[in-house]
Design brief:
This protein has 7 helices and 7 strands; from the N terminus they run αβαβαβαβαβαββα. By secondary structure, it is of the alpha/beta class. It has a 7-stranded mixed beta sheet with strand order 1-6-7-5-4-2-3, sandwiched between helices. The protein is globular and about 55 Å long.
Length: about 190
């Protein structure tokens, strides 16, 4: 299914060490903690080839249930799982093809959760597997943070259904061509 997986823990080390952000002194850990604190999920799905101790600790301290998938192809076992309040993908997409990664994010978004967070380090992925930032944007995600340390970069992307499709001022009967037909026809 693409490139062979590199040895484990290549990325886990970077998740547990402080890195600096171009915007502030925030770290991936503090950004992730802030997201978890604001959402307060009671059930969490972690998809990662390596353990992410911060997420495990947060779930223990807050009484949240944590389900972890740490497989090279998480799409197949994902079909057997229920819905979660939030899903986090870390150290996974770097080793999947773009198509498989898009399928994973799509399944999560459409069937398993309303909130998805992705931590992604482009330089860890082989050249043929790298995602461009607009690939995440095309999946309805937004880039919340970019962390830099030396020659490494880690981007944090998120998708929240409640934030995705906001109400537009112009989308009502006042601005429609035939206001008397507003809400009568679907085509």
């Amino acid at each position: 299914m693409g490139a062979a997986l590199p040895e484990k823990c290549r990325y886990a080390k970077s998740m547990n060490q402080p890195t600096s952000s171009s915007a502030s002194a925030a770290t991936p850990q503090t950004a992730l903690a802030a997201i978890l604190e604001s959402v307060q999920p009671s059930s969490l799905l972690l998809i990662s080839l390596n353990p992410v101790p911060q997420i495990e600790q947060w779930c223990q301290h807050h009484g949240a249930s944590l389900h972890t998938l740490s497989e090279s192809d998480p799409v197949t076992p994902l079909a057997k799982l229920q819905r979660f309040d939030m899903a986090i993908i870390a150290d996974q997409l770097e080793y999947m093809t773009r198509e498989s990664g898009a399928q994973l994010i799509g399944l999560l978004r459409n069937l398993h959760t309303e909130r998805v967070v992705v931590l992604y380090q482009q330089q860890l992925a082989p050249q043929t597997l790298r995602w461009a930032s607009n690939g995440f944007l095309a999946m309805g995600m937004r880039r919340d943070a970019l962390f830099r340390q030396d020659d490494r970069e880690m981007a944090l992307y998120s998708y929240d259904l409640a934030r995705y499709n906001f109400s537009r001022e112009w989308n009502n009967s006042r601005f429609w061509a035939n206001p008397e037909n507003w809400g009568k026809y679907w085509w």
